[in-house]
Amino acid sequence: MDSLTPTQRDRGLQRLRRLTFGATAGGLIAVVGVGYAAAASYAGKASSTATAQTTTTTTDTTASSSSSSSTTSSSGLQSAPQAPTTGSSGSGTVTTGGS
Amino acid sequence: MTLALKSWKALGTSVLVLTTRDDRLESATTAVRQVLEDVDAAYSRFREDSELTHLNASPGRAIHVSSLLATAIDAALRAARISYGAVDPTIGHAIRVAGYDDDFSRIAAGGPHPALPRERGREIDSGERGRQMKLRAWHVPGWQAIRLDRGSRTVWLPQGVELDLGSTGKALAADLAATAAMAAAGEGGVLVSLGGDIGTAGESPSGGWRILVAEDSRVKPSGDGDVICVPAGGVATSSTTVRRWSRGGVILHHIIDPQTSLPTSGPFRTVTVVAGTCLDANIASTAAIVRGEAAIDWLTSCRLPARLVENDGTIHYIGPWPDPTSAAA
């Protein structure tokens, strides 16, 4: 095999760099394009995972009653639209308990 | 505001209907009766002709079910998912083996020491040294074994799976009954209590529905205890102190821990929760009893007002539960 001249070797290296750059850029474009197409065709919904509140509270008595509609917590359970308040027994009182 | 009230017995428990308008009580009551009849026919575990009995007797086949039973099973599966399996509808066989195999009034009248059923299952020592008594427990298959197709309303149960919708079923019935009663009443507000599981619909009385929080729903509303006012939503209490029976000298109750297949033995005997619906309140209260010590952190993360009674009577208040020492409304 004939040996390369320094000029030929430099040209070869330049060609190799152009090919490497082209392949990298093409790959990036392909990844972005395919990702966009996938997102558009299989649309989802953004969600956040709430961190569980781990404080053990046994005396929290603040009754917030400003909300007017039920909300669903991260647990999936629906809360009442308004917090209960302290009352006294009287006409129309109903008992909750085990049965 | 004067509330109108009607009460009677159904589904093996007490039923109470309250309306804010006296002239709407009759129509509301009629609607509630109809819902309860439908519920009994759809998912009573003690009726041989109920849909649920037929479904439990048909494992390995896709069974078409009514809209009501599909809704009840869907609710039970949601409860299991949300509670990480603490509230599991596949405890049917386990609770029957434990002795709760009939309407509770007949079990209570059946004598204090009936023999244990001789069925295949796991044997667990009762923990009482000196006794030779062993409890036979049936492995709970787990809610994931159930296949429900909501579109076609078909349910498939594998062999050995027996559904019990008792926990979520009664709470769902309270919600459905309250909604139906409100639709029939047309105006005002309605409260329906099924053995202490409470659903509401429409407008509440001024300040909210007054609810005495007790461990036993048979306690008179004028009795001692915390009274809370609930403007809307549902309230449920789960307790191991009521619906107890004796089996071979061991006291049992109806809240089964799916992990052990036996009645729970955690630190809390009674849990009351207020939520957006009676169903969700019941899921939280029952799961709290089953979860035991982990219940406080879990309920706190759920942000639902809750009241927990330990076995020794110590009371814990969670979330926005009203201060029991504050002035009465």
Quick tags:
heterodimer; A: 99 residues; two-stranded antiparallel sheet; rod-shaped; B: 329 residues; alpha+beta; T-fold; eight-stranded antiparallel β-sheet
Helical stretch tally of chain B:
8
The count of strands of chain B amounts to: 19
Beta-strand portion of chain B reads 25-35%
Strand order of the largest sheet of chain A: 1-2
> Which structural class should the secondary elements of chain A be placed in?
alpha+beta
Mean of the pLDDT scores of chain A?
A: 64
How large is the count of helical segments of chain A? 1
List the helices and strands and how they pair.
The complex is a heterodimer of chains A (99) and B (329).
Chain A: H1 6-41, E1 71-72, E2 78-79, E3 85-86, E4 94-98
Antiparallel strand pairs in A: 1-2
Chain B: E1 4-10, E2 13-19, H1 25-43, H2 51-56, E3 62-64, H3 67-82, H4 92-97, H5 104-108, E4 122-125, E5 134-137, E6 147-149, E7 154-156, H6 166-185, E8 189-194, E9 197-202, E10 209-216, E11 226-230, E12 234-239, E13 244-247, E14 250-253, E15 256-257, E16 262-263, E17 268-275, H7 278-291, H8 295-302, E18 306-310, E19 315-318
Antiparallel strand pairs in B: 1-2, 2-8, 3-7, 4-5, 6-7, 8-9, 9-12, 10-11, 12-17, 13-14, 15-16, 17-18, 18-19
Helix pairs in contact in B: 1-6, 3-6, 6-7, 7-8
